[in-house]
Amino acid sequence: MKPLSRKATCNTHGQDSSYFLGWQKYENNPFDEVRNPNGIIQMGLAENQLSFDILESWLDMNPDAAGFKRDGNSIFRELALFQDYHGLPACKKALVEFMAEIRGNKVTFDPSRLVLTAGSTSANETLMFCLAEAGEAFLLPTPYYPGFDRDLKWRTGVEIVPIHCTSSNGFRITASALEEAYQGARKRNLRVKGVLVTNPSNPLGTTLSLSELNLLLDFITAKDIHLISDEIYSGTVFSSPGFVSVMEVLNGYENTEVWNRVHIVYSLSKDLGLPGFRIGAIYSNDEMVVAAATKMSSFGLVSSQTQYLLSALLSDKNFTKKYLFENQERLKQRHKMLVMGLQKARISCLKSNAGLFCWVDMRPLLHSNTFESEMELWKKIVYDVRLNISPGSSCHCTEPGWFRVCFANMSEATLNLAMQRLKKFVVDSTTNNSNNRSLDHYYSAKNSKKKSLIPKWSLIPKWVFRLSSRDRDRESSDER
Amino acid sequence: MLSRKASCDSHEQDSSYFLGWQEYEKNPYHEVQNPNGIIQMGLAENQLSFDLLESWLASNTDALGLKRNGRSVFRELALFQDYHGFPAFKNELVEFMAKLRGYKVAFDPNKLVLMAGSTSANEILMFCLAEPGEAFLLPTPYYPGFDRDLKWRTGVEIVPIHCSSSNDFRITACALEEAYQRAQKLNLKVKGVLVTNPSNPLGSTLNRDELNHLIDFAIKKEVHIISDEIYSGTVFDSPSFISITEAVMEKHVDHESDLLGRIHIVYSLSKDLGLPGFRVGMIYSNNETVVAAATKMSSFGLVSSQTQFLLSNMLSDKKFTSKYIKENQRRLKKRKDMLVSGLRSAGIGCAKSNAGLFCWVDMRYLLRSDTFEAEKELWKRILFEVGLNISPGSSCHCSEPGWFRVCFANMSQEILKVAIRRIEAFAESLSSASGRENLSHQRSARNSRRSLSKWVFPISSYNDHEPADR
Question: Which residues on chain A are in Cβ contact (under 8 Å) with B272?
Fold first, then answer.
């Protein structure tokens, strides 16, 4: 008899072996400005390390919040005993107000519809348990956060069916892609229970447009399914267009059928840079979902010590206003630094306005338009250039050559160094180009609008600057 | 629209248990504001030693302020989400666990996996060890929460191992085999046995015989043993606590049996340290695959790094932990003795216990009839008339009606005294209702029965009751 379950022995926790090797490589040789200046720079971790000083200074001025005190009186006992899965009321109130503030107060949230969970990892899994049976499916636009393969599928038995998005339109979700994914699921005999989107998107770093949101709502209405909007990056929107939450689009549709089927996931891991504190939340208009998710949160409650700290932090409106503004400014600066640094290396990326990363177009550096080539390039970047970045295939991107590169988890100096290394790598690759094509030739070709050099299949997205690479196969790019 | 899990009721929130909670919430006792309110005695919380924790906190403000040697470690903690857990914390935890076991066993921090509470730990073990539709055997009576924690999202079944008062609810080889056969008849593949040691709701530690029966059974049937030892620090009286690990070592189990790879311990700081709000639970396993899988699954419920840091500091203070363990146990014993003697003076007996935060009280003789309906009736009377929220044995799947779990560590001494007075008054009112002669008759009958069952003091009830040697 098999002593352990299939879940324990299989590999569908999604921790893929080739990336594991890359991560191991980083672990064995991590960059340190002083101790290991030639080590691998971590650019694969979507952490927000830019605004800790603001948090630290708040903590210094408010020692009671971490000291289990309220108005100078100890509330240690109360917190030590507090394990009510309805959550600390003050924490939920402060959190919904923070969420509203992030949305420019264009939506208001009811704290009784918020369920606290130990991180959005827990929130997403809990929603799967609530909304789908094992063997049913959720549709997710690609590229998507690799962790979803584990979080949504592993213990729940739920399937993910991708909604293919492409660079031809900036990876936007289209009605035909939605329908194609739905039909694809049906052909596999998978009952679709809903769509899960991340807005702002990881790994794209873009916010969903109003038309995408309306499209999604139309789609879930027509198919009678759910929509989960994972908005954990909502506080990281640093430039226009601003953030439009799905809840904002639903203003005026309260108590309609569709309103009950829209659920939001939130977390303080990205906006506040506190992944270690495990604060996640589900917000739902459906009472039964709230009730079931509340009970399920027993399996991953937020420490009361942390709930209390958060309630004090977030109810300080001076702090939240200052933090949101300053944090977004800093993210904007960093983003600009990365984009410009990439440009200097003749590398472009998707135009983005949010998140802690850029979606970088390295297709011109591929030997061939294949995922094998992407893996080859990735290995070179990890081992030779010594940058740990995330290959698009790990995010289920349908097109090889895209990489997610993080910019908020290191110092400015380190980011600059990373850009220098990358530039050198590109220059060296181009210099070794046996076809002897110069970069200038391609820029002028683009500018001269010679149609033969512009693939017919694309909508000529403004932000993509094509570059040469060693053995670039022109025909294969035309096929895409 | 929603999954079956979300829409059904098998999260097993027993309705009578829930009713008790509701009534308490509506009318909670307060010494001043509501002295006639309901006293909560259904919550297994340890509120006796907070002063010790608070005094430690007052002298160790760095741990609270997220500082180490005066230097802020806020950033490090804010970012720390490694599911391998805070190394310093795990080192302290295994040391603490060894201490609780009198250093008769040693634990390896690499085999410890942290997660948000033992609720999470137990569910994770089910996901790791069993497929949906497979089963674990649990001795009754057991903690009502297991019905949700072990079964709800995992699809695993629980098959009870019936224990009875005839031998102090001890697990017997026969009961184990009988449960196994019953599972077979239900076409359920048994993956293991889960015991709580010390037991909730019995408040007693498993003895060597029981542990040996479990080990023999697990070897013979090639199944797992999960030992939920969350009350291990609350053992306040002899016999001393024997951990499953110690029992296996002493039995010199043949390594070929692979048994070691099938022993898993669940622990938590909710009961021993009285910190249920902080969500600190853990799994200890000798099985590498289980440790690896559970580590990844802990992603769904990691312990806040803020909390890991605070408690790793606290547990590293060995003077404090020694003092705490000893003093906490002394206070628990005192409280338990108070409750037991209070019950005795009301003519009510309870199972002999040496651990836990509650007593397993025998109210069979107060039942109108030897049925669960009568137990429910009695429970309601105690809730509404006496004003005490206690847990009926049926909610713990006890096979005999009339037993109740009564907690003693979640209120002040004064409130416990009030509760005891109310019980005495209730018992008095029952015995005066049935007549004084009956009472003296029963008292002499009781004295003669003492030789049969040491701990059970029957009193009169409305009708003739069956002898204690059931």
Answer: none
Indicate the pTM of the whole model: 0.90
pLDDT in tens, A184-236: 999 999 999 999 999 999 999 999 999 999 999 999 999 999 999 999 999 99
Kindly tell me if the per-residue pLDDT of A72 is higher than 70. yes
Q: Is there a catalytic annotation at residue B337?
A: no
- pLDDT 10s digits, A349-393: 999 999 999 999 999 999 999 999 999 999 999 999 999 999 999
CA geometry: angle B292, B293, B296, nearest 5 deg:
90
CA-nearest of A397, A389, A365 to A471 is: A365
Which stretch of DSSP H or E encloses residue A428? Answer: helix A412-431
Collect all residues of chain A within an 8 Å Cβ-Cβ radius of residue B115.
Answer: 300
DSSP label of A265: E
Q: Is A134 exposed, middle or buried (0-12, 13-18, 19+ CB in 10 A)?
A: middle
Closest residue to B289, CB basis, from A8, A56, A302: A8
From B14, B228, B272, B362, the catalytic residue: B228
In this prediction, what percent of chain A has a pLDDT beyond 90? 82
Taking the CA of residue A37 and the nearest CA in chain B, the distance in Å comes to 21
Asked if B304 and A83 come within 8 Å (Cβ–Cβ), the reply is no
| Residue B143 is a catalytic residue | yes
Q: Is the pLDDT of residue A469 over 50?
A: no
Q: What tokens appear for B349 in the block? A: 């007996």
CB B368 within 8 Å of CB B411:
no
CA nearest A226 in B: which residue?
A: B1
| Cα–Cα distance measured from residue A46 to residue A64, given in angstroms and rounded to the nearest whole number | 31
Q: What is the pLDDT of residue B434?
A: 65
**DSSP H or E run through B300:** none
Q: Domains in chain A and their CATH numbers?
A: 6-52+320-469 (3.90.1150.10), 65-317 (3.40.640.10)
> Is the predicted pLDDT of residue A12 greater than 60, yes or no?
no
Q: Is A230 among the catalytic positions? A: yes
Asked if B2 and A150 come within 8 Å (Cβ–Cβ), the reply is no
